[in-house]
Amino acid sequence: MLKKLSIAAAIAVLSISAQAQTANPIYVGADIGSTKVDGLTDNKTSYGAFAGYKFSENFAAEVAYRQLFKTDVGPVSVDGTQTAVSVLGIAPISKEFQVFGRLGYNQLKASASFAGRSGSGTDSGVLYGVGVQYQFTANIGARLEFQKPASDTKNFSAGVTYSF
């Protein structure tokens, strides 16, 4: 009898733990930030959106799109974007506060236009970053993040997340 009761208690504890970790596994978010590209004289405003799935308390996967920068280099207008897929390793510090690391793959696209003519080019490679997230409620959070989408590009952003 004691053995059956112990097994039942263990199953109940594990199921409660599993429910707590995956209560809101799907999330979306938006961010605004600053991008620095080597060779450009100043930082440029960035903004983006992302969606993710949290597999457990410690791992998530995300897809994202970000407008990295828009700038004019003399008479040439240049627009840089990022499309990315990544895995996040998450270390909960408390119930509300998390630190995360990002490793992924991204495609960068630069489009330029001058006197009615335009052209574009792409580059792809490894994306990595680190950040912190604070959960105000079970559904709403805020994050700060540093990303390195290319060897000559850095992005720092602040965003909000909504889990459902």
UniProtKB/TrEMBL annotation:
<dbReference type="GO" id="GO:0009279">
    <property type="term" value="C:cell outer membrane"/>
</dbReference>
<dbReference type="Pfam" id="PF13505">
    <property type="entry name" value="OMP_b-brl"/>
</dbReference>
<keyword id="KW-0732">Signal</keyword>
<dbReference type="InterPro" id="IPR027385">
    <property type="entry name" value="Beta-barrel_OMP"/>
</dbReference>
<feature type="signal peptide">
    <location>
        <begin position="1"/>
        <end position="20"/>
    </location>
</feature>
<feature type="domain" description="Outer membrane protein beta-barrel">
    <location>
        <begin position="7"/>
        <end position="164"/>
    </location>
</feature>
<protein>
    <submittedName>
        <fullName>Porin family protein</fullName>
    </submittedName>
</protein>
<dbReference type="InterPro" id="IPR011250">
    <property type="entry name" value="OMP/PagP_B-barrel"/>
</dbReference>
